[in-house]
Amino acid sequence: MREIDTKQVFTKDANKTYGLMELVKGTKPTVGLQPDDMVFTWPHLLIRELVLFVVVTAFLLVSAFFFDAPLEEIANPNHPPNPAKAPWYFLGLQELVSYSAFIGGVLVPTFIVVILMLVPFIDRKKIGIGKWFAKERSFANGIFLTFLIIMLILIIVGTYFRGPNWEFVIPWETGGLH
Amino acid sequence: MKIKDELINLNQQKQKGWFKQFWSNLYRSIFRYGKIPQDAEGQSYAVFNNLFLHIHPVKVSRHSLKFSYTFGLGIIAAILFLILTFTGVWLMFYYFPSATEAYNRMLDLRSSVDFGFVLRNVHKWAAEAMVVVVILHMARVFFTGGYKPPREFNWMIGVVLLLLTLGLSFTGYLLPWDQLAFWAITVGTSIAGYAPIIGEPLRKFLLGGDTVGQEALIRFYVLHVVILPGLMVIFMAIHFWRIRKDGGLSHPSENEPTKKGNSR
Ligand code: HEM
After folding, report:
1. What's the complex ipTM?
2. Which pTM value belongs to this model?
């Protein structure tokens, strides 16, 4: 049997085969629920952190040996590449900017940041916590998932499907991946 | 540590050589509670008495340790930041924020600095990974309802961390001073310039002029190596602190009972 640590709350009397475990206010029997499911940070959490650290470091070192970070010609203000592209995480916005500078450059980014900040104040009901894709939360999760997918699609389009003068290209037909 | 143990320890010390005794006294002066802790008391003190471990609570819930709950994404983001700080400071020994020198230093890292290419590559890939991991972490928190009360504020701190991560990545992008860097920043800052009223002043403030040049390079450099990392450390500290103050990670037991019954 696994030993349950109740030492902090009640000391155990060795002569007794029973003991007071916990006082529960409630109307339902809660048989089988332990007082808590807490374990010590040392070693349970620390060992996990250490393992993650080693794995992440090893992964980066291996990648660094096999894949070089890009480095192009020295910067030349007189020779703009066509098209000039922002870093990949801004390419979704750049894609929107190509339709409307105001929407892509101002409206959407401001909207995203403001809504993200307000998320916990819009959706406060304490249901579906602590579980991935809980049924009770499928509406909120659906909205957020849709948002992520739209951003992803815009970024993919901006990265691979935009050629000179920001015109639509099919990457595997023109050959050049950017 | 119980007094009895302490006495036994003292007795043993009398029989040790002077060096061993010095060593054990030194060790004890740093780590008061002995070697690898075995019992509950020692395990508590190991965390409690150590500045670096003390950012953790003494105990955590099993639920929060399940890999499939967090996928370790928050920790991975923190680890990546640590690696980026380490490699970034190392890179500073070789880098020079000048429009005529910066690019040469990139070439040096490839050719004349021992393992310079590894150093730069690790920094670059860790930076890309951090952007991805932080976004995935945000998604994890959302899909598990981790932002609900009492964690509203920590979610907002998280949004700031996301913006800082993007800011660090973006400012770092210019530093190699190659075509990629130059034009990406030209495009990126022009997007900022579209905002009404504040857009153009903001762009000029970032660039220190009308176009990307030496002034922009030094501004991005200072933002990248001092200001943004400093803010990142402060906000991460608040983030971690709040996780503890909010009672650890979100847990199914926090759900309010619904009409159908307790939804544990
Ligand atoms: C530099 C970036 C970040 C770092 C290093 C970081 C680190 C962490 C860590 C280590 C945890 C513990 C649980 C876990 O590993 O998942 C955590 C939890 C949390 N993070 Fe982050 N985080 C970052 C960004 C964000 C962002 C962008 C958001 C949201 C917009 C966010 C919101 C939260 C919340 C609400 C929790 C508590 C979740 C729960 O109780 O289930 N964090 N963070």
Report:
1. 0.87
2. 0.87
